């Protein structure tokens, strides 16, 4: 048998054995966390925050950054979006944001524009934050080398790290009561 025939036979055998292998087991499905969005309670200001935050997806991460030109870290992104879209001046750091006087919100009551806080270093010390945009998703500036991105609260990582949420934007009902 010629060398070419042997190579062809070995290649054919390898291909057939690869096709005969078992398929990998299906991954174990995690039960997703259900997030309820209340669109009827979303204010026009919350919509402005949503669109401004989503418009910054892809902006480079930079520790200490707080503008689209320089890049963002997580708290710089939040401070910029709320000031630019809603005229609200927020503290500069996640540690200052989590202790500010604002209504704490349960995960089942999240609305567009709520601030999300995480302990990504373990424990209960806040180290990261993002802006909730609805349907279990949030915008954040995650890490060096990355960019501002849209992420899911259903991911096990974010569920483990989740600490708290705060509402700094007025709801439609609150706006209706203002003079």
Give the percentage of residues in beta strands: 15-25%
Structural class: alpha+beta
The tally of domains stands at 1
Q: How would you characterize the largest beta sheet? A: 6 strands, antiparallel
Strand order of the largest sheet: 3-8-4-5-6-7
Terminus-to-terminus distance: 95 Å
Second rung of CATH, namely the architecture:
Alpha-Beta Complex
Average of the residue pLDDT scores: 81
Q: What is the overall silhouette?
A: globular
CATH-wise, what's the superfamily?
Answer: endopeptidase domain like (from Nostoc punctiforme)
GO biological process, one term: proteolysis
Keywords: Hydrolase, Protease, Signal, Thiol protease
InterPro entries: NLP_P60_dom, Papain-like_cys_pep_sf, Peptidase_C40
GO molecular function: cysteine-type peptidase activity
Question: How does this model look, in words?
Answer:
One of its GO terms (biological process) is proteolysis. Pfam families: NLPC_P60. GO terms for molecular function: cysteine-type peptidase activity. InterPro entries: NLP_P60_dom (IPR000064), Papain-like_cys_pep_sf (IPR038765), Peptidase_C40 (IPR051202). Keywords: Hydrolase, Protease, Signal, Thiol protease. With 179 residues, the protein is an alpha+beta fold. The chain has a single domain (43-169), classed as endopeptidase fold (from Nostoc punctiforme) (Alpha-Beta Complex). The chain has helices at residues 3-20, 44-55, 74-86, 94-98, 156-161, 172-177, and strands at residues 66-67, 71-72, 103-104, 115-118, 128-134, 137-140, 149-152, 162-167. A 6-stranded antiparallel sheet has the order 3-8-4-5-6-7. The chain has a two-stranded antiparallel sheet with strand order 1-2. Strand 5 (128-134) and strand 6 (137-140) form a beta hairpin. Helix 2 (44-55) packs across helix 3 (74-86). The longest helix has 18 residues, at 3-20. It is globular and about 35 Å long.
